[in-house]
Amino acid sequence: MANQLISQMGLPKSIAYVFAARNIITAKDALSLTEFEMMELLDVGLAEVTLALAHISEVSCPPYQTALSLLEHRIQNEYLAGHLPTRLKGLDAALCGGIPFGVVTELVGPAGIGKTQFCLKLALLASLPSTYGGLDGRVIYIDVESKFSSKRMIEMGFNSFPEIFQTEGMAKEMAGRILVLQPASLTEFTESLQQLKVSLLQHHVKLLIIDSMTALISGENGQGPPRQHALGWHISFIKSLAEFSRIPVVVTNQVRSQGRDEASRYLFQVQDRTEFPEDLMSFDSHLVAALGIHWAHAVSIRLVLESRSGQRFIKLAKSSISPPMAFLFNITASGIFLIDDDGVEMMGPEINAIHCQGHSGIVNFDTEMTR
Amino acid sequence: MEVSSLPISASQRGKLISSGYTSLSSLSSVSPSQLAQDLKISENEALEILKVASRRSELDITDNGACAIVNGAQTAWDMLQEEESSVRITTSCSDLDDILGGGINCKEVTEVGGVPGIGKTQLGIQLAINVQIPADYGGLEGKAVYIDTEGSFMVERAFQIAEACIEDMQEYNSFLRKDSKDSQACQIRKDPKDFLDNIFYFRICSYTEQIAVINYLEKFVSEHKDVKAVVIDSITFHFRQDFEDMALRTRLLGGMALKLMKLAKTFNLAIILLNQVTTKYSEGSFQLTLALGDSWSHACTNRIILYWNGNERCAHIDKSPSMRSASAPYAVTGRGIRNCASNSKRVKMM
Fold first, then answer.
1. Hey, of A61, A80, A253, which one would you mutate to test binding to chain B, going by the most B CBs within 10 A of its CB?
2. Does A73 touch chain B (CB under 8 A)?
3. Residues spanned by the domain of A206
4. Is ipTM over 0.90?
5. In what residue span(s) does the RecA family profile domain sit (chain B) (predicted)?
6. Four-CA torsion B168, B172, B175, B178, nearest 10 degrees
7. Which domain holds residue B89?
8. Is A362 exposed, middle or buried (0-12, 13-18, 19+ CB in 10 A)?
9. Over the stretch A70-82, which tens digit does the pLDDT of each residue have?
């Protein structure tokens, strides 16, 4: 509503013409000026300016809802009350039903831990008919790292839902609902995102997966403004895509090793160092999510996948609906599954640490690449 | 009083001064038609100018009048009385309430910042629920406005916190009225849904909308008098993306901060702004600091930073005119923000 035209807001004619004459066309133009700048620019008195601005603000402010109507609306109008079940019982319970619609969910973890496996499974689940608990819709899978494997996905399908996949032609139909995009550059990715905005609603798309966000940025490194700003537009755009089409968006993020000078404390903590003799840096493991703190603020749910002494854990590192929990998991022919549905509640910043030791995948992360 | 201080348009001001009307007293005796002739403007316009001028000189008279030395001022003693009688919004964590002097204060703008996942949104939702605690239980019995710029408000979570809040009130109720026989009569008739019904939720998708909603709040709050808390989650998000012109950003943020303070004062509101963190290079190393830059850090009355201290979540008062700088641990539990329990690892049964 930021680009709403002032001329259509029902202001008194006399003042509306003054706005038009000074080339203040949209609400954005008007609200970016202070009242005094406006007085100078429009050459009218303070009273008129205040009135006009109050009116413009009221019109361009989106309407409110009570939290109750929000809840009722979701329960009534949305299948599964707005969640995509992951079929991992413990995780679903912690997330109130699964990956929520309308927000960005992030998977972070070292290479080979099973991020892509998780994504493949989610893609499959979303494409299933609703009689089997799926979302019965199309899935758009943006595969930046060229790691998507149809074979693996259908294998998962055969093993976890034999009754569907053994039916003649079903494998074809399910797989036919998953559209895989492989953008080669950030620019290409940006273009497809913009196209998506329209087609998401038209084509009954129920899930958007981006695997991974990091590869896009590292590919473009070395030119242009620093990385944080390169992603600024994408962050808000992806969030608004999720919001307005009310679909779950799942994004993966790589890890990189933490630099020595990485900030992890505030100035007041440094000054108080004598009070905390133990070095707080020591708990920070050597791995951190590749996209920085700016990105981390933007995701609503962060799942960390890690391995500790040969066991794989999936941790709910950031979520506004669940306490920090960790679940033991493994990957089999039918995809990712939880060994124990009772999670362990985690304490402290441990929940954000990413361990990577002794899992069977190929551990090969290149600091140069992810940086 | 100079004519140049009148809130009228630049061209009218120019005309007044060039016709020799430089002070307010020179306008006091002139008739509208006389003024219209002198300034070569319509009589209506002249009448408007005179109205504005007379309003201004009335103010001047009361200024010098009996009761106040400066209009709009309040004595420090009155302020103290008012402050002591005002009810604060509890955070549901008594350690945190202690360092805050009882909770989040009304009439003030409080900024809360911290790393992702530390519990900013949790605190925001908790406060939106706690502001509704009935007066019998030491609450404000108000309503809340929740301005969500990030889409991180989870209505399921608000429901959980409301449920826990009702349970706590029931516990308090039975504790308080253990002896009396009428404990049955004092059952709480509140439902979690009532709590949700009293949260007005705005979803903001651009910085223009953010400015618009803050301008509009004045009208909204005057129509919904029982609103006592406004949570903005977060103030930062739209101002961190796509902003080329940093001078414009600073100016817009400054304007917003002023409006929020005025709102807090006029309607006796607690305004809670959530902020993100960023890294900053100072004294030879990188530090975490709240986003939006140095000039913004002046904008809020109180500033609370949430951070990890070893395995504990802590809140640190970074800036406050009335409270000393202190830290307190808190925990985010299934029931909301609570005191920090010392047992380190609990197995949660699902």
1. A61
2. no
3. 73-370
4. no
5. 85-277
6. -110
7. 77-338
8. exposed
9. 888 888 777 767 8
